[in-house]
UniProtKB/TrEMBL annotation:
The lineage of its organism: Bacteria, Pseudomonadati, Pseudomonadota, Alphaproteobacteria, Sphingomonadales. This is DNA replication and repair protein RecO. It comes from Novosphingobium kunmingense. GO terms for cellular component: bacterial nucleoid. Keywords: DNA damage, DNA recombination, DNA repair. The keyword Electron transport does not apply.
Amino acid sequence: MELRTPAIVCAVRQHGETAAIVRLLTEPQGMVAAYVAGARGRVLRPVLLPGNLVQADIRSRSDVQLAFARLELLESRGAWLTEPLPAAALAWVTALAAATLPERQAYPSLFQALSALAVAICQAPSARGWLPGLIAFETLLLRELGYGGSAPPPPAADWTETLAQVDRLGQHLERYLLADRRADVMGARALLRERLGRMG
């Protein structure tokens, strides 16, 4: 595989002293795991933040070999990681994508939806502006992976009803997509829901 494409950083796991295994969501290949040399260095550390949009050069000699990647930053989400709600939302949606999407299976609609959601999280003046997009992304993910056929519910005018939609979707995600996953994935959603609840 030789691929040069924009990608969303979804998960980073340290590997050895200086490298990392990075899970990237791309439009043409879906979720791709790749080895990134020097990932823990001063130059690449701010590039490898979950939610960042990067230009990825991905290469592998065979379909069964772990790919190697070179990454260049296209759009950073770092400035919003100091804000509790945007940070929790970005952590949740990227962890969800990394935990549930199969390797090298394209889901162009999910790539586009996650790209748009990350922009909305960072640019909307409050969570009221991006929460309907998060609900739509979770609904689309369930549908694309075969666990639901309905369209996203219309945005609720009432904040209490919007939070009720979030809670209902959370039950479906935990039951169908994350039933056999580690608890820390849903922990990211629990933190987001707690922060949303404080908005009242």
